[in-house]
Amino acid sequence: MSDARNRMVARAAAEIAPGMVVNLGIGLPTRVVNHLDADFPVCLHTENGLSGIGPTLPPDKADRNLIDAGGAYVSTLPGSAFFDSAVSFALVRSGRLDLTMLGAFEVSQAGDLANWKIPGKFSPGAGGGIELAQKARRVVVLTTQTDRAGNPKLKADCTLPITARGCVARIFTDMAVIDVTPDGFALRERAEGVSLAEITQATGAPLALPAGDIPTF
Amino acid sequence: MKLPDKTTALEEAVAHIPDGATVMLGGFGVPGTPFTLIQELLRQGQRELTLIKNDANETGMGVDHLLSAGQVARLITTHIGLNAHAIELMNTGRIEVEFCAQGILAERIRAGGAGLGAILTDIGAETELAAHKQRVEIDGRSLVVETALRADVALIHANSADPFGNLDYVATARNFNPLMAMAAERVIVETEQLLPFGALAADNVHTPGPFVDHVVELGTLSKEYAIVRR
């Protein structure tokens, strides 16, 4: 993983407060776990039926029956619990999830999220993403600021089929930390070595800049 | 009195699945996938199947064999991102895929198992998945009607079973298995261990035996039921 991505993931980890129940989506968000201390009090949930995810295991230490929703081999902690898929999503839909971190194809300035379908190209399905996006108490996104072709992923409106509307509160990218406010995107922090002009140019909608110094990460 | 014995030979149990059947399959990734029952279904070759499964396993594994053999007309699922082959079959129109939000698929199956007709939810209400679904207004909220799902047959992977079909599951192999075990006309279980009556404590039963029709003891575990090295 590049330095910029690593910094983004490390910065996102600071979003997790002690005591939270958190679901980390497939892809970059899962890597946040590498930045949490062993004695940090948090309950990680995975939608395939586990609360209290422990450290990821290499194949030779893995249990064939113990994975996270992305297929990574994980472990349990003292106090972990297993449950079926209905119970797992009852936990999500009833508001017991304090925070979810999700990947994105696009995020709109109204906080709409698109992350499950690129028509005709890649349609993996939404998995548990719709419920996580709609029902977690706080939804943040981890994504690169632009796609592989260099197009901004943060847009005025989503052009791809949406996962949920108005759900995203904050976006962590390789360039910046950006909040979704009632007035649209607002820059909060920038990655070290990245200029304001670069961030603005890589954002596909108006970006409000804070007064004074902008913290770096 | 004593409880009935439902142990059945693999071939005989799977032979109950007719062409055109709707088949639920437990599992989320490898854990809980009934690989041995799937292999027997592949061998017997029933066709025009509708499968209901959380995912499509990975290319060359589990239900992907049934897709490759042309046995599947329709797949109701939540996520097939780990199986590029299944995405290609969908994109080229060779299988029909219905996507469902994961927890809603679970609740539709649970509703089917509980003898209900549908559930009402706001999940996915603003997405294209719900675009053509019926709506009902409850307390001023527009909710989507998600119809209950039942199947002709459910294929279940258990950790242990007794001859009556009381089951338990381990770790994340539980997933959709106990829900599907309630929602089919005929429930076929493959079990890693067949325990004598009484060995599975009544308090620790995850699926009660009355839901189960056939218990197939696995001699050896399928080679596919293993650690996937990516």
Plain-language structure description:
The complex is a heterodimer of chains A (217) and B (230). With 217 residues, chain A is of the alpha/beta class. Chain A is built from four helices and 13 strands. Chain A has helices spanning 3-13, 85-93, 129-135, 196-201, and strands spanning 21-24, 43-46, 50-54, 75-82, 99-102, 106-108, 113-114, 139-142, 154-155, 168-172, 176-181, 184-190, 207-208. In chain A, the strands form two sheets. In chain A, strands 4-3-2-1-5-8-10-11-12-13 form a ten-stranded mixed beta sheet. A three-stranded mixed beta sheet of chain A has the order 7-6-9, with no helix packed on it. In chain A, helix 4 (196-201) links the parallel strand 12 (184-190) and strand 13. The radius of gyration of chain A is 17 Å and the shape is globular. In chain B, a hairpin with a 5-residue loop joins strand 8 and strand 9. Chain B is globular and about 55 Å long. The chains are: A alpha/beta (217), B alpha/beta (230). At the A-B interface, helix 2 and helix 3 of A face helix 4, helix 5 and helix 6 of B.
